[in-house]
Design goal:
Elements (H helix, E strand, L loop, with lengths): L1 H12 L4 H15 L9 H6 L6 H10 L6
Helix pairs in contact: 1-2
Length: 69
């Protein structure tokens, strides 16, 4: 994983304990390998409807000028 090679020496040089660095590297490797890539129905159960695609939301928000603050 590309993050682990640079993360360890940089973090240790900044005083982060090596145990925390190794934990972080392991977490990045797990996430990067798809370890958290499962789907669940939590959004649908919470909202009572199917989730919207983020691209659809972004287009609608842009049309409404929500980001023109």
């Amino acid at each position: 994983m590309r993050y682990s090679l640079g993360l360890t020496p940089c973090s240790c040089a900044q005083g982060v304990p090596e145990e925390w660095v190794q934990l972080s590297v392991g977490l990045y490797e797990y996430v990067g390998s798809g370890g958290l890539a499962t789907l669940s129905d939590g959004v649908q159960r919470s909202l009572g409807r199917a989730p919207r695609d983020f691209a659809d939301y972004a287009r609608a928000a842009a049309r409404q000028g929500l980001w023109n603050a």
